[in-house]
Amino acid sequence: MKIFSFSYLALFLLLSCSNYSTNKIKTVPPTLVSITASNGGYILKIRANNPEVFFLGYRLYMGTTESEARNPADLSSGANCVNGLRTIPNQPIEYSMEINSDPNINSGTMCKFQVNVQSGQYISIRGLLLSINLSNASDSVSPSQPSNAIIVP
């Protein structure tokens, strides 16, 4: 009986609420700490805290300058984590990510970007959040502000 009543209450509140915010939730970008060579690729150490409910993961951007890596012309042009995140970064601690173009190498890090980066390139990361628009039943992926940029050794 309580579950039945709760279901009706939840449905009533969802359908009758007209005071929801149209502002998108902002996700916090990670902080890049270091990058080191490993197994023909790189291990990237970051500090992140993204406990948001609709947090999707991270996108890596590359560029020849710091500005180019942090502010790409097209925000959908970066590389996403392959197979999603292995760990949700909900604690403000240091996490490891892998950057390696070889699909067979997997170091068990939180996230793997399967791209080829070159020494001297700058990289930056943005957090990704799913945004749902209730007024027209659509969704989109919203990137965060850019992280700091770090140069590949």
Explain this structure to me?
- This protein has two helices and nine strands; from the N terminus they run αβββαββββββ.
- By secondary structure, the protein is mainly beta.
- Strands 3, 4, 7, 8 and 9 form a five-stranded antiparallel sheet that branches.
- It is elongated and about 60 Å long.
- 29% of the residues are buried.
How would you summarize the topology of this molecule?
Blueprint: H1 2-16, E1 31-38, E2 41-48, E3 55-63, H2 66-70, E4 79-80, E5 93-99, E6 111-113, E7 122-133, E8 138-143, E9 150-151
Parallel strand pairs: 5-6
Antiparallel strand pairs: 1-2, 2-5, 3-4, 3-7, 7-8, 7-9
Fraction of helical residues: 10-25%
Global outline: elongated
**What percentage of amino acids are in beta strands?**
35-45%
String of helices and strands: HEEEHEEEEEE
- Can you tell me the residue ranges where pLDDT is under 50 for at least 5 consecutive residues? none
Quaternary state reads single chain
Q: What's the average pLDDT? A: 84
Determine the structural class based on helices, strands and strand pairing. Answer: mainly beta
Straight-line distance between termini: 63 Å
Number of strands: 9
Number of H- or I-type helical stretches: 2
**Rg over CA atoms:** 19 Å
Main beta-sheet annotation:
5 strands, antiparallel
Brief characterization of the structure:
The protein is mainly beta. It is built from 2 helices and 9 strands.
